Fold these 3 entries.
Entry 1:
Amino acid sequence: MTQDIIHFDKVVKRFGDLTVLNNLDFSVKRGEKVSIIGPSGSGKSTVLRILMTLEGIEGGKVTVDDEPLWHEQAADGTLKAASEAHLRKMRAKLGMVFQHFNLFPHMSVMRNITEAPVKVLGLSKAEARQRGEELLDLVGLADQAQKYPGQLSGGQKQRVGIARALAMRPSILLFDEPTSALDPELVGEVLNVIGKLADEHDLTMLLVTHEMRFAREISDRVCFFDRGKIREEGTPEELFTDPSEERTREFLSAVLDG
Amino acid sequence: MTQDIIHFDKVVKRFGDLTVLNNLDFSVKRGEKVSIIGPSGSGKSTVLRILMTLEGIEGGKVTVDDEPLWHEQAADGTLKAASEAHLRKMRAKLGMVFQHFNLFPHMSVMRNITEAPVKVLGLSKAEARQRGEELLDLVGLADQAQKYPGQLSGGQKQRVGIARALAMRPSILLFDEPTSALDPELVGEVLNVIGKLADEHDLTMLLVTHEMRFAREISDRVCFFDRGKIREEGTPEELFTDPSEERTREFLSAVLDG
Amino acid sequence: ASLAEIQESGTVRIAVANEIPYGYVDPTGEALGAGPDVAKAIMETLGVENIEWVTTNFSSLIPGLQADRFDMVAAEMAILPDRCQQVLFSEPNSSYGEGLLVASGNPKDIHAYEDFAQNPDLRVAIMAGADQLEMMQELGVDEANLVTIAANADAISTVSTGRADAYAATSLTASGLASQSDAVEVAGAFTDPIIGGEEVRSWGGFTFASGNEELRDAVNAALADFKQTDAWAETLSGYGFTQADLDGSSARTTEELCASS
Amino acid sequence: MHWTEYFGPLSEGAWVTIQLTGYSTILGAILAFAAGIGRLSPNLGVRSLAIAYIEVFRGTSLLVQLFWLYFALPLAGMAIGVDLRLPPIVAGVLALSLNIGAYGAEVVRGAIQSVHKDQHEAARALNFSPRQTLWNVTIPQAVPEMMPSFGNLAVQNLKDTALVSLISLGDLAFRAEQIRNFTQDSTTIYSMLLVTYFGMALVLTALMRTLEFYAGRWRTARS
Amino acid sequence: MLFGYEWDLSSPLAFAISILPILLTGLVVTIQAATLGFAVALVLGLVWAVLKAVPSPFISWPAKVVTEFIRDTPLLVQLFFLYYVLPEYGIVLPAFMTGALALGIQYSAYTAEVYRGGLEAVGTDQREAARALNLSPARTFTHIIVPQAIPRIIPAMGNYLVSIMKDVPILSVVTVLEVLNVAKIVGDRTFDYLIPLSMVGGIYLILTLVASAGVRLLDSWLPKQGIPLK
Ligand SMILES: Nc1ncnc2c1ncn2[C@@H]1O[C@H](COP(=O)(O)OP(=O)(O)OP(=O)(O)O)[C@@H](O)[C@H]1O
Ligand SMILES: Nc1ncnc2c1ncn2[C@@H]1O[C@H](COP(=O)(O)OP(=O)(O)OP(=O)(O)O)[C@@H](O)[C@H]1O
Ligand SMILES: [Mg+2]
Ligand SMILES: [Mg+2]
């Protein structure tokens, strides 16, 4: 067992003619908190979506927990495309928090959180409900369990989104710009919850964000993506205070001014 | 004939329960260039829209060119609500440039400019076209006459908007935030054209804007609006360098920092 | 149009209901049948060169006349008192008895209209607007067992598929339809219905809009002459009318038929 | 009769169907504009008339309308001493266009209302009269908006023409019935009929698409 | 006399009143045919929608052609086809059944689109969220997609029910005694079409105005986000 819980090995991803990831190498250690920053269209979301198995890959190999994600061992030892059963097994290791929350609007907050644990993990309703209550408490929404998503503010919705992902007990949690669809005054409450998670849990966290100050605070490592490649990476101090690449400097000066 | 071309006398404007203008007194001299500044919702657009007869008033009196705008003299000498014919006559004195340009998307640039002179003023097509060419030249778009608005950039659209308003030969030109829907790099070209107009023509100009530097450059007078009243007015120097009201100071410091 | 207008323009509009052999139009547009053939001869006598044939549903014939969509109907429509109140009839051109079209082999063993009154399980088809409806009602047939079809041509399908057990029509219609398909036949050993103590026989004539007496009188005069000729007898027997039918056609006058009952 | 012999009478019927579709679609479009614009009129009388027309013709069955015009209207005319005996072709075209016009009116109204209020304000600032605004600004922008729905309505109208065969108008469906009358060859005749209508609908759809393209050229003009 | 009811020709009003019960018997048939046809359209439309959504073009393409064909050909001709052609292949349905089937087939082409639109309106983000939570495809469909699609589908379906009702008179050509056919027969017998046909128009107007109002009411009652489960 290696130290890396996530490993991208020369991964290629195309949309039609557009090559979004071009031989990407990238890895994340167990328990590490990694922020991904970079200009729009550079492939940040794509990396998360490949991990969450929402997008397939065209070349290379992705490993999660030392097992290939998009491939599986055939009987004769060669690798073949992953079956749905394999994907389901792998997916259980990951949870994702979406930019637009993607809550189920027809289910109460509690049902949003308990539906998958009951149906997928096979928890009893009582167990799932108890875990749901703990999680709602964690995200500060203990009193909103019976509301519907339509009755919540954006920040509350996103906190439910985080609780829903945690309810599946993933070992890796992916965040795709969790605050960029929020009104500025609601951003803080969501970042607080994420910060608490980062401090208190040994979860591996992979976070795409435009909140530079926040990325700096919580990350062990920051990766700067540009055109489907990692241009530069390092500790937040290295990257934010003394970037070595011209491109990184440009990007940082643009977003920190804006 | 008084000096004032525009005169608001205790004008009241309501939207349902909301009183937007509350006994507003306000006047503009012939040939004067006046900028209106103020926080969002303070009634700036409403003043222009009342002048352009896009909104009626609930009380008081508006005079343009010494004639009541929203009223007319009945046979017995009393004032009654203006007829459509009266409004049409009065409207001919005014032109308006809109925030969102409001060009006619189904007409070429030239037709946008010539349609009203032909249909409303009764110019011949050839006359209208010649005037259109002069105006397009003025706004620097002589070579774009045959394009459709959909093919133009925001700054070009707004310059067509200005040419269209001028084609009706108004004596008063109203601008409602003419640059606030534009990408920052396109603002300059529009302000240039407006500046040129201010310098070279004896047009009366009334301009709602958030471009403080520009307001300062071109205006004879700046009015600070707050909650449907003029809080403070004066020459640009007076108002920008030494506002007497606390509220004005606050507003200016907020917008000049932003 | 009035007689004068028709003779002036040289064109008359005559309707048929697409019933073989009374009056029908073949796919080439040629009108044939007992009604049209006699009408052609009459129009020739009246000096009208041009006939515009109109095909319409049987139930639209009277409304069509009233709405002036045509000048005359040559469908051998039965002369009945009710109808006489709506339109004008010429003197009878033909007479015919009743018949029944049944599925091949006559599986339900039907031989008379009275059978439908006695056996409530039998369903009988009639054409919309045709006089068989009145007969069935007189005989006490349950309304629920009547299947009203829009045109004669639908009868074969209706009967052969069992949607109705028989189609009640004139004997000529029934035999005409039977000759078109192997799936149907004319009910054998048929006894004519007896209504009001008399065997039913129908007299068919030409029909005109009320108020157009001139045209009717002119047609009547020409018809009376034509019925004396061999051509008339040949025409009708060519379409399957029997000698009894031919003889019967002069047994009643329209006045009697309109007044009866 | 061999099935190839059906082509003659069927093509005569098809021509009648095409004419019916053409006339009633054009007349229907005119009615749609009149009623759609009328529904938005500030004049209460005009507006009520338009609403009544739209509701009555959308609310009743086309076949009922057709029968009413053909069978009942002459009697109504007689009762008031006016000759309202419409020839079948007129009754047919009228029923079809009144019906499609009522549906089209809602399309016209929707499209007119979808034109942004900004456009009305710009027109007002340029001193266009309400009528000029309607014809020079609103309608030209609304037309491309209506075209897809009009395309559907035109096909609907083509299909509806089959109903006129029931008032003895010699259209495609009527001719087919006539042939079946003779040959009892239902399978062949109805198959040919279905395919012919389908073909005509495809052509009509293509035609409407072309029209849609031309009506909305300015919308596709992008830099 | 029709269906055991006599009519009274003494005055137009008496005539109208006396034939109202007759027309109402026809109206019952109209409503029955519309309901049955609607049921067929709901089921068959779902079949089309599913077939058209199958990834294999060998299945989806024929389904698309067939529904386009159904949609582009007149109900009247389809009705004739079913009524006269099916028996030649040994399938004899009563006229009423044939009529309801024809209505159902014609409208299935439209309801298929309603299903498709309703399902597609539930965005991909909902599917992705379900996938990220490892919910099975079947469960995603039944518990995530369908409950959110239903409120969009129901009002559109309601409008088609109203349309079907207006097409029922076409069934009169194959001897179904719906309200128009009944009025027509009364007209054939009394030679007065004006009153029966005008009454049918009035009955229809009331029926569709009420039904459309019902659909609008239903629409306003439905939750906009989805039907909450339990
Ligand atoms: N489903 C898709 N089909 C086609 N192109 C896609 C698709 N998804 C993403 N892309 C393209 O792939 C590129 C990378 O997309 P990605 O969403 O990963 O960028 P990103 O770095 O997350 O940008 P942003 O900051 O705007 O979210 C973009 O050019 C995008 O347009
Ligand atoms: N049509 C309307 N109906 C109801 N309220 C309106 C309407 N138009 C404007 N208002 C209200 O009137 C007030 C003044 O509006 P106005 O548009 O004049 O403000 P403004 O000073 O131009 O603001 P901004 O800088 O945001 O354009 C606002 O509170 C606005 O919400
Ligand atoms: Mg992204
Ligand atoms: Mg404003």
Entry 2:
Amino acid sequence: MKAYPLEVLSNVQVSERYWHMKVDSTIIDESITAGQFFNIKCGEGELPFLRRPFSIYRINREEKTIEFLYLVKGSGTVQMTKFVPGENIDVFGPLGVGFSLKEEWDSILLLARGVGIATLAALAQEAAEKNVKCVAILSARSNNDLLAAETLQGFGATVVKVTEEDGTSNVENVQRLVNQLFEEHDIKAAFTCGSMRLSRLMQRSAEKRGIPGQIALEEHMGCAVGVCYACVCDVRGPHGINSVRVCKEGPVFDLEKVVLT
Amino acid sequence: MKAYPLEVLSNVQVSERYWHMKVDSTIIDESITAGQFFNIKCGEGELPFLRRPFSIYRINREEKTIEFLYLVKGSGTVQMTKFVPGENIDVFGPLGVGFSLKEEWDSILLLARGVGIATLAALAQEAAEKNVKCVAILSARSNNDLLAAETLQGFGATVVKVTEEDGTSNVENVQRLVNQLFEEHDIKAAFTCGSMRLSRLMQRSAEKRGIPGQIALEEHMGCAVGVCYACVCDVRGPHGINSVRVCKEGPVFDLEKVVLT
Amino acid sequence: MTKNLKLDVKIGSLHMKNPVMPASGAFGFEMASLFDFNELGALVPKSITKYPRGGNDTPRVCEVTGGMINSIGIQSKGLPYYMEHIIPEYAKYDVPLIASISADSIEEFAEMSEIIGKDPAVSAIELNISCPNLEGDGKAFGMDGDLSFELIQKVKGVTDQPLIAKLTPNVTSIQEIAIACEEAGADGLNVANTILAMAIDIHTRKPKIGNVMGGISGPAIKPIIVRMIHQVRNVSTLPIIGCGGIMNSDDAIEMILAGASAVQVGTANFINPLSMIEVLEGIKEYMVEYNISDINNLVGKVNIPSSTTTLY
Amino acid sequence: MTKNLKLDVKIGSLHMKNPVMPASGAFGFEMASLFDFNELGALVPKSITKYPRGGNDTPRVCEVTGGMINSIGIQSKGLPYYMEHIIPEYAKYDVPLIASISADSIEEFAEMSEIIGKDPAVSAIELNISCPNLEGDGKAFGMDGDLSFELIQKVKGVTDQPLIAKLTPNVTSIQEIAIACEEAGADGLNVANTILAMAIDIHTRKPKIGNVMGGISGPAIKPIIVRMIHQVRNVSTLPIIGCGGIMNSDDAIEMILAGASAVQVGTANFINPLSMIEVLEGIKEYMVEYNISDINNLVGKVNIPSSTTTLY
Ligand SMILES: Cc1cc2nc3c(=O)[nH]c(=O)nc-3n(C[C@H](O)[C@H](O)[C@H](O)COP(=O)(O)OP(=O)(O)OC[C@H]3O[C@@H](n4cnc5c(N)ncnc54)[C@H](O)[C@@H]3O)c2cc1C
Ligand SMILES: Cc1cc2nc3c(=O)[nH]c(=O)nc-3n(C[C@H](O)[C@H](O)[C@H](O)COP(=O)(O)OP(=O)(O)OC[C@H]3O[C@@H](n4cnc5c(N)ncnc54)[C@H](O)[C@@H]3O)c2cc1C
Ligand SMILES: Cc1cc2nc3c(=O)[nH]c(=O)nc-3n(C[C@H](O)[C@H](O)[C@H](O)COP(=O)(O)O)c2cc1C
Ligand SMILES: Cc1cc2nc3c(=O)[nH]c(=O)nc-3n(C[C@H](O)[C@H](O)[C@H](O)COP(=O)(O)O)c2cc1C
Ligand code: FES
Ligand code: FES
């Protein structure tokens, strides 16, 4: 990890609330894995004060670029929309521990909500590269927010969309879909990101079937490198519950071990 | 006075340290006089925190524009260089009391240093409009900083330049010039801005000859409208020395009354 | 819809039609052409001293991250001028006038309050107890609970006007001072004045303020003031005026949720002369959005999780 | 040219080759890959407690204008783990290690200092007296001069290590606490810890920090800290470590001019991981520019105009 000056190649609005940014990652000579994140300085001056953490949405190893998909939320992400191609931005990372696809997982289910889709997209990409069959349930407020579905489909993933707009995103329906897809596709591992409610659902469902899985968590951060203990969450360990750092031991954790509140 | 959203028409670097900005003043329906100033919001967000005061450099009544000439000094003026044509900026004013040219003053001498030239330029323009003969001594570090000389010459002013670069800006030489120009042009009133040292010189010289005059002062400001008493200076009044507000009673004061420190 | 909003708040017998007013020293009738003063909840002129005062050396203000430092030194024309020229100027408006007083001793506070209190144009007195006690050790009255008690009690004895104690945030325990003021009979508490600060120009090596130190105001201090409002609210039943760093209606609502019944806007006026009007409009919009009919129902309504330790 | 600069500073018997070090809690060996720790004047790990502690509810940090609020709650693995695993990790570097201690009682401070003080890898102890006194009223030790005196004196009796008292800025008179610490035998003063603050999300109406209140750090507090350094410098001869809001070398130099012999950089590390190195480089450049050969000649060299009133 390092604070890299990366050149913005493109930064465009892709839907009402989402933006997509591609940066040149040639100078990063460390390995980057799906599920890791970068802490981005969103403005040149003092505003916003802290960096903002973003997962990697796509890693293009040949063309040496990485991509981010971000939701415009507050001051930091509003500033980010002002990045222009050609500009060098200050991107700190790669940070944390990403997903790990075990050899035996030949068929995986992803359950993502909202901007959690950005995080799981990189995993779908990796699955495609490793010829792992990938099925994804993507949940969002509206179809407009589900633009990343095509990216996942591009990677060969089977995508099921649920939204408030269509009245399909309620817990019951998602539970039904999860059960159905677990069966239909002989799922070996489950992954989730973006919603506490859906994560609990996935945790229970996977546990019932004895299926392993991983979850990517979000927490407000200070240092993003593990020194300040701002970003903790609880995980079950051999000796009881441990408080661990999302930025350092995570953001990806074993689904079965995380204490979801 | 009011906080007007004014459209930037141009904003360009005119020399190493100076920038020139023209804004559309159509929506200002108050009268604006030379020596008055505007308090400009230099950035959209919270930085810089305070507004920055700038004199009017030129008033173009027909085309309904006003111009500023500014020295890039710190955070505020650095931000101002980022204003682009078409952008609306937040300009508060017109503020304070400007110069007043009396009928009988048919020949005036200006002595300006550095960015003080910006302030006196508007006066030279008014003099030209009123057919008043105008002679100016402009002092600066380098000839590069004396770009406004041409503007004054454009108004028909006789301009004498002195600089550190040429070794001509020392007090003795300026004193000699002031004496000489007072005589040569039968000066009726003296004006100065931009340097304490030169202001004292002008004050003494004018006093000796019994010539009236005016001076434009600068002081760090809070409100710029007279409520906070941040910007005071001392002037001699009928009952002794009074503390008055540069933003409200000034920035232009009678040269003979100001207590220069 | 905004027609039915109840925005009026009370501080003792002082009745304001809405909770938004200027902070002393950052407001004056020079602003009268900028907006209609009748829109405000109250008018608060600059603190007045008994005798004329020249104020401090310039520069009197400097900019810092998220705010400014000022050390004006309460430049003032003295009480007689104030009574004759300043009060009548504000009396023209149909809005209660809160007179702010600074004094060097408790006796002077009482003396001035008695005189000002008799003016029918005045609706309340704000005691700027953040100013130094020249007869004591030079520390502000408001840094000492006993002195604050004595000061308020003395003033209470000479006037029937509602009394607002303007606290200084430069203390170990603002709660202690708040309790002392309440016990002494204050009708309201202003939380708070500026925080003592200093900035140095590293090139000239001189302080950026002529008087070396000054008070910091602006958004940089808001989280400290919000904390103090919450602390005071927990120990006192007096209405609180929140003051320090309000730039917009979100900031004002934050202070109201922390426990303020009204707010004062200072430095923001320098940056946006319409700040106070916009703060008021924003509060109304928030009330409509969240279906709050009476502003008083928002006061102190921050949701504190029950599990919280009380130690910080 | 920078070769001949004298940058070394002393705090009691603690000798540092330069005045730049991290602030406790904003530094750790997870940063070792980012720059060479051997470049620093000292290493300061996160404060340690006697027993393991879980820390506070999340969110533990939030952003405010010009800074952040944190309430971590000193999550710690306890003293034995610290002695066995953390100290040895820092002992690898050729830079003095300053161990920061937090404790709930004076006895615990003494007990921990005695144990830590015996470790040859430790070069000084920083006593975080800003933490609450659980046996007393819950206020921080550093809010009370007598308690601060007692605490430092007790610790002084059990170890020969140089002692740095890390003061809390949440006090009426930082001078009083500084004097108490000096009289009790402290070797240096850290001015200061974070300022107690609070922020509320006006939409959820919940505090933005799980623990309701927390400490504000970052540039927003710098002018308050600079003022306190200057105040402490006027009453104490102890070396001061300036801490609070340093983002770059200009800020560090400002604190040195105000009276600090050394500086700690905290929050800035989160924004620019190379902050400390850049602060050090900037100090050197300033010394070259102004022809200062020994950093100690800059300490407290702010130019105070003689006419200044001493009352603020
Ligand atoms: C490991 C990780 C990966 C993430 N990946 C993505 C991504 O790929 N795309 C995306 O759009 N968002 C992602 N997020 C969330 C993203 O960091 C926040 O939306 C963003 O910080 C909001 O900043 P803001 O200034 O726009 O919003 P504000 O709400 O104004 O932010 C205020 C403060 O809260 C913090 N904050 C707010 N929301 C979050 C959050 N969900 N997680 C952590 N801190 C938060 C901000 O960092 C900032 O300090 C990720 C978060 C984490 C922790
Ligand atoms: C009435 C008046 C008219 C002015 N007219 C012009 C003009 O036409 N062109 C021009 O280039 N400059 C003019 N100035 C000076 C100009 O205001 C400052 O150069 C500018 O504020 C510097 O801002 P900064 O952020 O770039 O510099 P910084 O030095 O970073 O500013 C820091 C703070 O100090 C204040 N400050 C610094 N210098 C001055 C100063 N000389 N006067 C008042 N405040 C200051 C700033 O406003 C700011 O609050 C005028 C000043 C006044 C008072
Ligand atoms: C320039 C200036 C002058 C002030 N003068 C006074 C004063 O005379 N009396 C007083 O009680 N407070 C005075 N204050 C403090 C303000 O009333 C207010 O408490 C403080 O500025 C914090 O609020 P703000 O952040 O909204 O400005 C002054 C503040 C400023 C900036
Ligand atoms: C996340 C965080 C954790 C901190 N933990 C500690 C701590 O354990 N002990 C301590 O003495 N100070 C702690 N502090 C305070 C810092 O050491 C420092 O005093 C403060 O942050 C001000 O400096 P800064 O503005 O440079 O960050 C912490 C600060 C932060 C931001
Ligand atoms: S953000 Fe500092 S430990 Fe995770
Ligand atoms: S700047 Fe406020 S009175 Fe002049």
Entry 3:
Amino acid sequence: MNVLSVDVILQFGLLIGILISAYLTISFRDLLSAALASASMSLLLSLEFYLLHAPDVAIAEAAVGAGVVTAIVVYGIAKTERWEREAP
Amino acid sequence: MIVEIFFYSALVVMIGAFFALLRVFFGPSVPDRVVGVDTLNTLIVAGMILLGAAYDRTIYIDIAIVYALLSYIGTLAIARYLQGGLE
Amino acid sequence: MIEYMIYTFLAINMIFNLLGSISLHRFPDVYTRLHGATKCTTFGTIFAVLAVVVHALYQLRITNDPKYLQMALHSVVALIALLLTNPTGAHAIAKAAHLSGVKPVKAVIDAYERKLEEGAQ
Amino acid sequence: MSFIIVFMWSFVLWLVLTAGTKGMLWSPEELAAGVIFSSIVAYSTKNIVGEKASRFLNPSKWLGFVVYSVGPLFWGMVKANLDVAYRVITGKIKPGIVRVPVDLENEAQYTILSNSITLTPGTLTIEACPDEKALYVHWINVTEPEPQSSEVIAGSFEKWARRLGK
């Protein structure tokens, strides 16, 4: 088990995590939980950019995706409503 | 030799991050999920520092600084919403 | 000698970070989970940063390259940011959870609940 | 006054982050840019920080912080983590939220004490009430449901907080 395979294992795990959290983001009925799943998705995406040796993209993703977008979405939920309605 | 051990410990830290991610997915209430995201933030900062030492680049550690300072905003916004301070 | 020091620090880091994430599944409610999550991961990260700092200073002494000095200083700054934000975030989550109605499981005494009831009357 | 303090701290942070650009020291361009950016930060926050920030100018207090964080706080964290490790493995808990009366004066002391309590054995601050001089603490193993002083919870931290936040 050399260093390269550790890298590959990490990337596979991260991609699985990104897929599951992206699916949960669109499937949660509670929008606050969806905001949290989206925060964890952009967090893992930032680490994926990091592992692909793109530090500038990773900084932008960490700054915008994990902190600011979550805060803005939560403000939006506070101004409107928390539970998603069933489609008519 | 030393650099490889940083890779392996980053791998172990990421396994811990996977457990925290499971708590985000299955947490019955919203505060449980917030605790999961908070733990995930700390573990990913630790992993970024270890991987920065492993790849031998300083700029990778700067991402960890930005991340540690900004991931806090999301946690605080959700905590503020849960205690009814945003309406 | 230095290598064994780094190995020890990394071992402590791995053990406590894993314990912190396992405690999320082992404990019954939000407050006890916060105990495990905050304390163990902060402590583990301190040792990760110590390992990186020792490694960087050792390399600095061998190669005399200023990039290793930057590595040590920046990881210390990241550690200070974590140490300031982590307990504060835990405190905010605990208060928000209590005010949003999550009761502590199997609690012997709940003085904060009593205080809130007195304030409501 | 607050302009000088914020300027100084942000310039120090700039110096730490840009060390090693010319040999082991700083290049003159970095120093000039640091002066400009720290004055912008200090000017834009001068109404937020306020006059109380002058307590951060006392060097003996910095020494106190370093001694406190390396000595009692770190030892408390070691004990806390062994304790949490024991509880994670065996699963023995007896949780509860207790009210702890403390004797502190200003908000900085409350901040130091509650952050220290969060990082040390078995306790997590939930709410600080400066008007009734009490902290509400979640305790993972309640031995005393209504403590009369903070000795049981915090040990010597209250003394340290009173000295450091003055």
